[in-house]
């Protein structure tokens, strides 16, 4: 018996508020852009998914830095 496991990633997108999107780890950045556009419908209906600019950031989750702005 052959079993194929697909790893999913949950990413949080920040566009005037945060929202999660779940995508398979084997998908492309283009697929991610399409998913983000779909999640933000109807607000993103006039935006071409390919024109979205994505940034990879790391925001520390340190309880001692509660006073630090993001």
UniProtKB/TrEMBL annotation:
The keyword Lyase does not apply. The lineage of its organism: Eukaryota, Fungi, Fungi incertae sedis, Mucoromycota, Mortierellomycotina. This is Crinkler effector protein N-terminal domain-containing protein. One of its GO terms (cellular component) is host cell. It comes from Linnemannia hyalina. Residues 9-66 form the Crinkler effector protein N-terminal domain. Keywords: Secreted, Signal. InterPro entries: Crinkler_N. It is found in: Host cell; Secreted. The keyword Secreted applies. Residues 1-20 form the signal peptide.
């Amino acid at each position: 018996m052959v079993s194929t496991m697909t790893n999913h990633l949950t990413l949080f997108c920040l566009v005037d508020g945060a929202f999660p999107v779940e995508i398979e780890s084997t998908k492309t950045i283009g697929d991610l852009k399409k998913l983000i556009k779909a999640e933000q419908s109807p607000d993103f209906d006039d935006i071409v998914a390919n024109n979205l600019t994505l940034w990879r950031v790391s925001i520390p989750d340190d309880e001692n830095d509660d006073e630090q702005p993001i």
